[in-house]
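User: Please predict the structure of the protein below. I'd like the answer in structure-token form so I can feed it into my own downstream comparison script.

Assistant: Understood. Taking the following sequence of 231 residues as input:
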Amino acid sequence: MFQMTPAYIIVLIAMVASWIIQRRLKSKFEQYSQVGLQNGLSGKQIAELMLADNGITDVRVISTEGRLTDHYNPADKTVNLSEAVYSERSAAAAAVAAHECGHAVQHATAYSMLKFRSAMVPALGSVSRFMPWILLAGILMMQTTKVPLGIGIVLFSLTTLFSFVTLPVEFDASKRALAWIDKRGIVTPQEHAMAKDALWWAAMTYVVAALSSLATLLYYVSLFLGGRRNN
């Protein structure tokens, strides 16, 4: 008979929290996207200005399809802004553009946590291809051997570690962004409050993702230990 273990309940709570945070984030960005910046700068212009102020001349600011698809790519040194952020002149666009440039500044200054996170990416690329199948095999074979599930847990722990390493990287990028837009006079006090709020909700998506990953890891561990006790 199926039992709701504490780890399983935590996974469900994390899934619900993630859904709520994502909806709240979209709502906040839609709200703040309606507020035009007093200085009239677009996300692209803000990004280019922040890069220039930090002496970064080898990073391009480009537009990418989708919404909330903004990211910095250290491989080709590009700040990728979603179509809305790239062209909009709003508090939300200012926050996102400056945040992604915050990652570019991290890269240029060899920020330790970003270096650590980037070093994990190649290994995780390989792990992600095989891990789901190993975990599935581990669950199906629990009654005969724990080896596949144990290997799957070790591999999944790497993805969980990656999720937590991402947190200081994201929080630091937002801190750099808010400090710069305030110092540069990009936003008014009211616009600064909106930009800070938008970035806080964006950061919460990473927090929930990390906690969800940890909850899932604990779930697999509970299966491993539970099956072990039953043998």
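That's the full token string. Residues 6-227 form one domain.
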